[in-house]
From TrEMBL:
Pathway: Amino-acid biosynthesis; D-alanine biosynthesis; D-alanine from L-alanine: step 1/1
Reactions mediated catalytically: L-alanine = D-alanine
GO biological processes: D-alanine biosynthetic process
Annotated positions of the N6-(pyridoxal phosphate)lysine modification: 51
Biological source species: Azospirillum thiophilum
Catalytic residues (UniProt): 51, 275
Keyword Isomerase assigned: yes
Protein name in the entry: Alanine racemase
Entry keyword annotation includes Isomerase: yes
All residue ranges annotated as the Alanine racemase C-terminal domain in the record: 254-380
Cofactors named for this entry: pyridoxal 5'-phosphate
A single GO molecular function term of this UniProt record: alanine racemase activity
Annotated GO CC locations: cytosol
């Protein structure tokens, strides 16, 4: 019998060729933003807040890049996030410190010790538990202690502060690395709340055993050196959100979102586009569809609002945002520009994160932390 003919095998294409949308994260811009803030707060130390997967950009890539630039303190919200940061730090800066803002879950003290994660102790119960664990082990254990100065979410409230100031022995066995607080209105530069919180923090520090202090988030840094204390905690500014909304953005943009036009069609008056027939075409129009939707974090609230850019030329978003698709009106663009396969910019230099957020009735933080998992991610620099 003759040998069977070899079956031709399909050649797999490049994932980038198959992708409909690309998220480009500029790690060099993240590092440049951190370096700018580091220089601004010196001689105070500058940490990096990398909660929520580094505000959606990716802890596994952002943390090593910042550690290589010299960042030695990383802040997250939850224990599991802290573990991911530890893993990312291992090859670059195993000595760096990691704080978990969300407190000390009961019975998990050993996990913090084993992974060298500093709990941020938010109430007297957590202080007692950490102290008791230290006594069991013998030897002091490091922690950050959060004093509430006006947020009323986490941290020692006024009564708890009084109790601690009256009985500092409650801190036995605890090596207080920092006293910290968090600002409620730092992005509103004429809001008296920031000054009131500064006064409350200073008077709390005066009543407590001496240790380093941490006060400012991104916007707090821009209130001046008396807001820097020993450690600043910027998050959003690292990722390009404007920490000074009343002024031009001093930070570099760090993400770009580009998508391919999947299809371009001609519509005539009285035709409607998308779910709910929410957009009615009023004249002859060319409507293009791109493969990004609310399942990718492109908020449904952005339906019918804002624009995308094709070669720097604006094309309005029309109709509702679907789970996987967005429709845009490209009637104003030449056919040889707006054709299937063409890339358009949804977020980037022509359309910064803060503008997309404003159009969607939200803040840049939410746009970044919603960035989807389906994008073909490309990391530059770092
Ligand atoms: C999220 C957070 C920050 C960072 O805030 P940005 O406004 O993103 O700079 C700092 N400190 C605490 C306690 C936080 O929860």
């Amino acid at each position: 019998m003759p040998a069977p003919e070899p079956v031709p095998q399909p050649v797999p294409s490049d994932p980038a060729a198959r992708a409909g949308a690309f998220l480009t994260v500029d790690l060099a811009a993240v590092v440049a933003n951190w370096t700018q803030l580091r220089d601004r707060v010196a001689p105070a130390e500058c940490s990096a807040v990398v909660k929520a997967d580094a505000y959606g950009l990716g802890v596994a890539r952002v943390v090593p890049a910042l550690a290589a630039a010299g960042c030695r303190t990383f802040v997250v919200a939850q224990f599991e996030e802290a573990l991911a940061v530890r893993r990312a730090l291992e090859p670059v800066a195993p000595d760096a410190q990691v704080f978990s803002l969300g407190g000390l879950p009961a019975g998990c003290e050993g996990d913090f010790i084993a992974n060298r994660i500093l709990p941020v102790l938010n109430h007297l119960g957590e202080i007692a538990a950490w102290g008791a664990f230290a006594a069991l082990r013998g030897g002091a254990l490091p922690a950050v202690i959060h004093i509430d100065t006006g947020m009323n979410r986490l941290g020692l409230g006024p009564d708890e502060l009084d109790a601690l100031a009256a009985e500092p022995a409650r801190l036995a066995g605890i090596d207080v690395r920092y006293w910290m607080t968090h600002l409620a209105c730092a992005d509103e530069f004429d809001n008296p709340m920031t000054g009131a919180q500064l006064d409350r923090f200073r008077s709390a520090l005066a009543r407590l055993p001496k240790a380093k202090a941490s006060f400012a988030n991104s916007s707090g840094i821009f209130h001046g050196p008396d807001h820097h204390f020993d450690l600043a905690r910027p998050g959003c500014a690292l990722y390009g959100v404007n920490p000074t909304p009343h002024l031009p953005n001093p930070m570099r943009g760090t993400v770009r979102l580009d998508a391919r036009l999947l299809q371009v069609r001609n519509c005539t008056p009285a035709m409607t586009v998308g779910y709910g027939a929410a957009h009615a075409v009023t004249g002859p129009a060319r409507i293009a569809t791109i493969g990004v939707g609310y399942a990718d974090g492109y908020l449904r609230a952005l339906g019918g609002k804002g624009q995308v850019f094709v070669d720097g030329v604006a094309a309005p978003i029309v109709g509702r945002i679907s789970m996987d698709l967005i429709t845009i009106d490209v009637s104003g663009l030449p056919e040889q520009v707006a054709h299937a396969g063409r890339m358009v910019e949804l977020i980037g230099p022509s359309r910064p994160v803060d503008r997309v957020a404003a159009e969607g009735g939200t803040i840049g933080y939410e746009i970044l932390t919603s960035l989807g998992r389906r994008y073909h991610r490309v990391y530059l620099g770092g």
